[in-house]
Structures are given as C-alpha cells and as structure tokens.
Amino acid sequence: MIGKVALFSILAILIAIYFSGDALNSLYDDEEESGKPLMFTTESLSEFNGKISPKLYLSIMGLVFDVSKGMKHYGPGASYNFFIGKDTTRNFVDGNFECKQNCDDVTGLSSQELRSLMDWVKFYKNNYDEVGKLIGKYYDIEGNPTPYAKNIHKLIERALKEETEEDRLKLKYPGCNMEWNYEQGTHVWCTDQSGGIKRNWIGVPRKFFSPGAKDHRCACVREQDINSSNMKEYEGCDSKSTECFFKQ
Ligand code: HEM
C-alpha cells in the first residue's frame, strides 16, 4: 500500500513537471513549426474588433488569437469585449477591465498570478487559432522575444517549478479538515483523506510554515516529521491528538 501511495505521488509530480514545461514551451513553439509568424502592430490589431473587421482578435503575452467563434463572450457589448483588439495580458489575472495603460505589463505579479497567466495562454492555445504576434512588449518586429519577454519567461519558469514543489509538499503534508463556530472557535482534524489526499495514515494537525509563505496552514503530519523545523504545535492541544480546538 505504501508502495502504491509513493508511486502515485511520484506520478503526480512527474505529470505536473511535464505539463509545466509544456506550458512555457508553448510561448515559443509556433515559430519552429510554421516559420515566420504574421506580425501585428498595435494599430493593425485594433482593427480586429468585430466592427472595422468582422473578426475578433485578442493578444495575450504578445500572442494573437482569433476568438471570433467566441462572439457571445467577446463581441461588441459582450462581457469580455474589453480584451478585444489589444494586449491586456495583466488584466487576465487582476480582473481590471477598466485598464487604460500598461495593461500588457506583468511586472510585479506573484508566482501564483504568473501561473494563472500561463493557464490563460494554454486556454487560448487549446481553444482558439493563433494567428500571429504583436510587435511591442513581448515580440520585436521579426517575431523574436524581447529582453522583457525573456525575463518574464524566466520568472514564469521559476513560478512553475515552485508549483511542483508546492504539490510535493501537499502530498507529504496534506491539509487538515477545518470548521469554525462561534462557541467552539476553530476545530482542525486529520483523517486518512483530509486535504483531498487519500492515504494509509492519518497524522496529527500542526501549523506548517511552507518555505517562502507569509503565513502557515494546517497540515496533517506523520510522527517521523513532527519535529521538523517548519512545524509548530497548536497551543493547548495534545501533541498526539488527531484533532485540535483553538479560539480564532
Ligand atoms: C480575473 C477575472 C476574470 C477574467 C479575466 C475572466 C475572463 C473570462 C474569459 C476571457 C471568458 C471567455 C472564455 C472563452 O473564450 O470561452 C470567461 C468566461 C466566463 N466567465 Fe469569466 N473572467 C473572470 C472572472 C469571472 C467571474 C468572477 C465570474 C463569475 C462570477 C466569471 C464567469 C464566467 C462565465 C460563467 C464564463 C463562461 C460563459 C459561457 O460559457 O457562456 N468570470 N471569463
């Protein structure tokens, strides 16, 4: 049984690594497949707005997609028309649909936001046709990534690696079940499937301080790991109990 759990964990991590690499490669692969991409300027892209041209194009991280078949989302007056005819990369993660300037700039986004951005790039690659590249922040006139884009790609690569590390930690230290009510305060407890991780052990609740995280989360921890430096006991809770109560 331990063998099966370990095998499953390794498989999950390998899948995560495979797909994260895939996501980043997707920012480069088209030139290799089809030679020179069609290059858009800010002005030429702005014409694909469903009015000047009947087509609807949008750009994310400088990649231009034909989203005409998503007319109900992107057409004039539709909820996501904001994205049309321009590159508003940043607003795919900050949800600011009023953005007027530097909307393609992702400087300062967190690792999680950069990963979410890659999910959007994957979404467009999987669901719509990529028709070219936008000359500007991410690509030069030849369609080569700009120094800015290369720097962002490095940050994304790092963010994707962090995710695989987070996945590993989630399997090793699954989350606790949690409930709160006014009289009892917070109740945390471990079961053999808390945190969505089915396993052959239960563990005890501990405050887990993930490397780099600002705050702690409740993790179910096996005896062999309870003395690890990033674990802290819940005050007033028996160190061997599978549940703890605390006021918060
Ligand atoms: C950062 C915030 C958000 C962004 C950037 C965003 C973006 C989008 C985009 C681009 C689409 C169209 C996808 C396609 O091409 O098929 C979409 C669809 C959709 N969004 Fe959002 N969205 C956001 C927040 C929300 C929120 C808060 C809700 C719900 C309250 C929501 C509900 C939906 C629904 C229901 C659809 C699908 C509509 C359908 O299939 O008819 N979105 N979103």
List the keywords.
single chain; about 250 residues; alpha+beta; Flavocytochrome B2, Chain A, domain 1; 2 domains; 7 helices; elongated; binds protoporphyrin IX containing FE
Descriptive report:
The chain has 248 residues and is of the alpha+beta class. The chain contains seven helices and ten strands. It has helices at residues 2-25, 29-34, 42-46, 71-74, 91-94, 111-127, 147-172; strands at 39-40, 57-60, 63-66, 129-134, 177-181, 185-189, 204-208, 217-221, 231-232, 243-246. The strands form three sheets. A four-stranded mixed beta sheet has the order 1-4-3-2. Strands 5-6-10 form a three-stranded antiparallel beta sheet, with no helix packed on it. It has a three-stranded antiparallel beta sheet with strand order 8-7-9, with no helix packed on it. Helix 6 (111-127) crosses helix 7 (147-172). The chain is elongated and about 70 Å long. It binds protoporphyrin IX containing FE. The site of protoporphyrin IX containing FE (HEM) has 6 residues, from loops.
